[in-house]
Amino acid sequence: MLISKNWLNEYVELDMPLEQLVEKLTMSGLNHDGTTIVGADVALDLEVTSNRADCLGHIGVAREVATLFGKPLNIPNPQPKTNGQPIEARCRVTIENPTACFRYTARVITGVKVGPSPVWMQQRLQALGIGIVNNIVDVTNYVMFECGQPLHAFDFQKISSGQIVVRNAKAAEKIRAIDHREYELAPTTCVIADAKLPLALGGVMGGADSEVIDTTVDVLIEAAYFEQLSIRNTARALNLHSPSSFRFERDIDSANLDWASRRCCELILKTAGGELLDGIIDVGTRPENPQPVTLRFGQLKRILGIDVPRDFIAPTLVSLGLTIERNLADSITVIPPSWRKDLTREVDLIEEVGRVYGYDKVPDTAAVPMAASFRPAADRVLDRVRGVLTAAGFDEAVTASLVPQVWSETFSPWSDSPPLRSSQPMLGVLEKASQNIGAVDLLRRSLVPSLLEVRRINDYRSNDQVELFETAKVYLPQSGHQLPDQPTKLALVSCRDYYTVKGLIESLVAVVAPATKLNWHACQIALLDLARSGELRIGTEIFGWLGEVAPAGRKQFGLRGEATVCEIDLSLLTKHAVLIPRHQNQSLFPPVSRDFNFIVENAVHWADLETTVRAAAGPWLEQVLYRETFRDEKKDGPTKKRLLLSVVLRSETGTLTGQQADEVCQRIIGQCAVVHAAALSS
Amino acid sequence: MSVDAMPIGHFVQQLDDLARAAAAAFQSADNAEQLDAARIEFLGAKNGQFKTVSKNLAAVAATDKRIAGQKLNSVKSEIELAFDAAQNRITVSSGGPQRDPKFDPTLPGQRLRIGRLHPITQTINELKDIMGRLGFTPAEGPEIEDDWHNFEALNIPAAHPARDPLDNFYLSVAQTCAGVPADGGHQKSVVATNHPWLLRSQTSTVQIRVMETTKPPVRIISLGRVYRPDTADWSHYPMFHQIEGLMVDDHVSLADLKTVLKLFATSYLGNAVPIRIRPSFFPFTEPSVEADYYWDGKWVEFGGAGIVDPNVLRSVGYDPEQVSGFAFGLGIERLCMIRHQITDIRYLFTNDVRFLRQF
Question: Is B353 in contact with A468 (Cβ distance < 8 A)?
Fold first, then answer.
């Protein structure tokens, strides 16, 4: 809200330095955003919060200044003279949509002489950046910026039969507004019409056909009270925001309609002449009287943390326009003014007293008691996960939670349910090259497609070593009325191959959940290479998926090189995490290592052979180490392979002898022969 | 004992004499040639004096052999040390050790590629860390919320502009009741039902969830992603991050809030900075304030805060006559961008690795 200093000075004496004025206003709730010199005047830009519609006029700001500096406030008392002819004989108003228009008042002035408004008025409006039109329109604007009540002047002769009808727009009704653009009206739009046609968008903008122009002789002055939501919807639907709609959206002082109307007429008579018809048309509901509110003085200290002197409280509230109903030793009961609808509770009064007294008097050295804080297990796990991944050369990405449909369909192993859809898309979040792939309005069920897009962007920019991970929630619909399941996942995309990424995941699990064994299961996911992919499980629970992106997937995402992706469930990892490992004694006796070279069918998986070896090895087993896979078709035929491995044995109670180790080897060889038809290479 | 056994004393004497003679010879050598000659004389592998004397070990009586062997070894080390010392002396006097000219120590080391945490994560970690020291425990909640937790319980009534469908990501969901094929073909808006879902527009939702299930005292921070449908530009993104603090106890006042904000700003900025609070407006706090810190000669906006509105306390079953609390909220991106002088918020979400690797 721009405030003209000269104008403000009309209601309250501004003898303080400007700096002190804006500082005090800032510190009491009207944040000073800047000062502009406009001719001989200065315009102060004050931020008005949405609860303080009373400060959307100079008088409201003047009242704040008067309270802050202990000065009297001078508000004009307009008493325009009438010509004695009753308005009722010339004009009628009906409200057909009382939920959108609560109250409507009209006064009529006949025989005005339209021309330029006086220089002093023009200067004040110009200080606020308001366009100058003529002495009638300028006055309506002037009074709006004076008291916050929007007003509208109609050319009275353009109102058919002098009849105003406040109603909702009819089907396919159109109006040309004073910006000379045509607007098609929705049936919820509140219009001011005459007996036939809509004349104005109620509370938003006047119509071109009834606007006051040079030839206008008689004017009707509207001061009305429109409902906030209705105005907001109309202004938004038509993208037509005016100082008037801005004020109605924040709620105006409905008890002030008559004052604003009188003030407007008084100034028109003064600047454009004419005669005011006697009386006012006033239809609709009158505002209810504000209810008294009691402030217990003890609550000031409880909420503000400071003692406010008793004799500061009542004068402050009175200066702000509240009326004292009872002033007792430990409390005060007051009635808020009609323009302060934000004051309905004790705590509202505490804020009033506090903000005027000054929050600078609130100490920043209170003795806040100490309290223990905790780091949730999920947080600790996340820290370790991030530590491992950064150590492995992965950079962390953060990508948007909404994705376009093509990405959503590409990879969704966690859920087959259709993704949740937002009622509106995210705008401007896709890179240029991806902007034609569709609306970004689906809640993602996997992080992988987003990371593949990041990989594409980096490939396109010729960045090397693009290794990325992200930890974020995915959104999985559930049946019934439960909120969607929103578990946190870790996804990564790497330029390296299946085994490297698998090794990374194994290392990660070894760090966070050392005792946990990962099991591989076959999976069939279109995005991934059928052989070089798999589902990972911990016990019977699904931990995630891992695989090299198949050529089709690389093409879909425009990747320049190979990519391996993985997505795992962090809550399952957290469940198995060992955050405080227990010490275990280490054997001081030397290990014994034995190598094996088994010839097996290609179909024998390492994981199965390893399980057999482990089971056969017995209690001295320390490690089973995979060494190499080797094929010799000439010797073994095309269906066989050789698996080379080492077994490390160690006892906690003594040095193992060669004979003891050999016995273990024989058991392993025997079991592998039985279970896997594994032959030892000669 | 055999008659021709050499007495141990004799053997030791020979060794001591040898050590002395060798040390003297090494010391008197003036250049590398002389030293090498002395080395061959005393330490020569074939006919060196040490080799010769050490053969006498065989003649020492068996019972003395262990001691004689130890003496032999210690004298050998003594002579070698003397040689090393002499060699050092000569090398230094001849202009220092010679570098291997084929080795280029200025070649780059074999660097490990260490990944970086996203600057948003780094900022969040720092804020969590600071607030943790002040006794605030992190709390998490769902990002898809119902309007009770996102609005109603936060004293934001149905007509409030903040609830406008255009200002929020409300969800339309397929009716996924059991038995109905969820083909996604007939999406139905849930905005009209009792508690429509939306992507949370603030992390205060978590405060409501914590208070609904916890009795006071409460001291938490909630943080994470929040969503508002702004078109992405240099200063807006439809998704961003917030951190919010909440403290509820028997006697929590604006002074406690100001104190915690002061400690917070001091920790974050690294030294004691002046802070101020000035009146503002939020539906869920009363009084509401805006907090600023003084930095580089001007007041910088820090975040919104206030005393928890009695309506909010009542909505979670707390008695506002018995307890009071403060809440504050900060935008992570703003703090992160100011701290790292990032000029366009979109850089944060494009994830160009050259951008990420700066932090």
Answer: yes
Contacts 24+ apart (CB under 8 A), B287-296: B287/A303, B287/A304, B287/A347, B287/A350, B287/A351, B287/A354, B287/A355, B287/B254, B288/A351, B289/A359, B289/B254, B289/B257, B290/A31, B291/B261, B291/B328, B293/B265, B293/B269, B295/B269
Residue B281: half-sphere exposure toward Cβ, Cα within 13 Å: 17
Q: Under a CB-based contact definition with an 8 Å cutoff, are residues B254 and B277 in contact?
A: yes
pTM of the model: 0.86
Greatest CA separation for chain A = 128
B169: nearest CA partner in chain A:
A422
| pLDDT confidence band for A155 (50 / 70 / 90) | very high
A 449-508 near B (Cβ less than 8 A): 454, 457-458, 461, 463, 465-469, 472-473, 475, 477-480, 483-484, 486
* Whether residue B91 has pLDDT greater than 90: no
* A394/B contact by beta carbon, under 8 A: yes
Sheet holding B218-227, edge to edge: B137-139, B218-227, B239-249, B324-331, B298-308, B285-295, B275-282
Which tens digits make up the pLDDT trace of A328-357?
999 999 999 999 999 999 999 999 999 999
B192 interfaces chain A, CB cutoff of 8 Å: no
Q: Note the pLDDT of residue A376.
A: 95
**Contact yes or no for A483 and B173 at CB 8 A:** no
> Does residue B279 contact residue B288 with C-beta atoms inside 8 Å?
yes
pLDDT of B181 reads: 36
Residue B169: predicted pLDDT: 95
Interchain contact, B161 vs A304, CB within 8 Å: no
Q: What is the distance of C-alpha B3 from the center of its chain?
A: 77
Contacts of A422 in chain B (CB under 8 A): 169-172, 199
B171:A420 CB<8 A: yes
Does A351 sit within 8 Å of B287, measured CB to CB? yes
Instruction: Please state which of the ranges A513-517, B87-91, B161-165, B187-191 shows the lowest mean pLDDT.
Output: B187-191
B162 touches chain A (CB under 8 A): no
Q: Which amino acid, residue B311? A: N
Token pair listed for A518:
């990962």
Chain B contact present for A302, CB below 8 A: yes
Q: Taking CB atoms and an 8 Å limit, are A458 and B351 in contact across chains?
A: yes
What is the reported pLDDT for B175? 39
pLDDT at residue B3, as a whole number: 57
pLDDT tens for residues A133-150?
Answer: 999 999 999 999 999 999
Instruction: Return the pLDDT at B92.
Output: 78
Which pLDDT band holds residue B187 (cuts at 50, 70, 90)? very low
Q: Kind and range of the H or E element at B290?
A: strand B285-295
Put simply, whether A579 touches B (Cβ < 8 Å) is: no
Tokens 């108003």 identify what position?
A93
Mean predicted confidence (pLDDT) in B122-143: 96
Which residues in chain A are contacts of B174 at CB distance < 8 A? Answer: 418, 477
Choosing among A232, A303, A459, which should be mutated to test the B contact, i.e. which has the most B CBs within 10 A? A303
ipTM: 0.91
Contact A397 B118 (CB under 8 A): yes
Asked if pLDDT for residue B80 goes beyond 60, the answer is yes
Question: Do A333 and A325 form a contact (C-beta atoms < 8 A)?
Answer: yes
Query: Which residues does B96 contact at the CB level (< 8 Å), separation at least 6?
Result: none
How close B73 comes to chain A (CA, Å)?
A: 30
Q: How confident is the model at residue A246 (pLDDT cuts 50, 70, 90)?
A: very high
Q: Count H helices and E strands in chain B, helices first.
A: 12, 11
Q: 């955050």: which residue's tokens?
A: A579
Query: Taking CB atoms and an 8 Å limit, are A483 and B145 in contact across chains?
Result: yes
